[in-house]
Automatic annotation (TrEMBL):
It comes from Sesamum latifolium. It holds the Pfam family MTS. This is Methyltransferase-like protein 5. CDD domains: AdoMet_MTases (cd02440). Belongs to the methyltransferase superfamily. PrmA family.
Amino acid sequence: MKLKQLEGLLGSLQQFENPKIELEQYPTGPHIASRLLYTAENSFGDVSDKVVADFGCGCGTLGLAAGLLGAEHVIGFDIDAESIEIASLNADELELDMDFVQCDIRNLRLSDQAIDTVVMNPPFGTRKKGADMDFLAMALKVASGAVYSLHKTTTRD
């Protein structure tokens, strides 16, 4: 799939109508999402034929991009049921098979599930300092291959 085609498909996804500030919900734009996943696949081979997890999946943008790029299996994880509902509708709209798990990522327990690649746009930690680090720690724990994560420079410390 070409980059512009991927960006166009991601641009058609339904987003949050009323983002929950306390969860630091914000949409992942199609421009950055398409480039992140396109690079992960075309430069590093970390998407197609891989099991990909989208931590804090929100509306599903990153995970759905992985599905569009040929991931073997995609699982979206989010604490918010409304986000998972939107992501599920987006998956249906794109005719992609994606599983969803409602959970707090800090309490994630994976028994037999092997995850090759984790993609995420975690809470930046502007409301709860270090929230992004909780996501990173879990991603590094479960990914057997690679972790791709978006962060805000002002929360670097």
